[in-house]
Amino acid sequence: STLPCAAITAWHSLIEKGNVKAGDSVLIQGTGGVSLFSMQFALAVGAEVILLSGSDDKLERAKKMGVNHLINYKSSDHINESIEAVALDGTISVIGIMNGLTGNINTAKLMSKQVRLQGINVGSKEMFLRMNQTLETKNIHP
């Protein structure tokens, strides 16, 4: 039941829009449904995953699934901290709401680092079919 919402949203962000591939680094904030699918898809294509969670138990489970870079945070991360952390010409996909619906964005840093900032929601039927093929081929289990 999570495939047509959480999974396809993660797929849309990482694979369809982000073109994540082997050797890329992916920072995932949180351990909810979209985050966990993002983690699995990123690992499946050979990307290096950095996972943030406020729960040591969830981080330990992620480690068992193949994540090597785990960070425990105690407060929600902010979009400007993501802009600071992203690589030159990197992409930030905003999927959930962590700090409310509005905020101040450091546009100077966004522009100087040539960051792509994109909002993501669920994907199309075609994306869903491609995602399901990958789930089967890579033996990914939600």
Automatic annotation (TrEMBL):
Residues 33-85 form the Alcohol dehydrogenase-like C-terminal domain. InterPro entries: ADH-like_C, NAD(P)-bd_dom_sf, Zinc_ADH-like. It comes from Tuber aestivum. It comes from the Eukaryota. Gene3D superfamilies: Medium-chain alcohol dehydrogenases, catalytic domain, NAD(P)-binding Rossmann-like Domain. This is Alcohol dehydrogenase-like C-terminal domain-containing protein. Pfam families: ADH_zinc_N (PF00107).
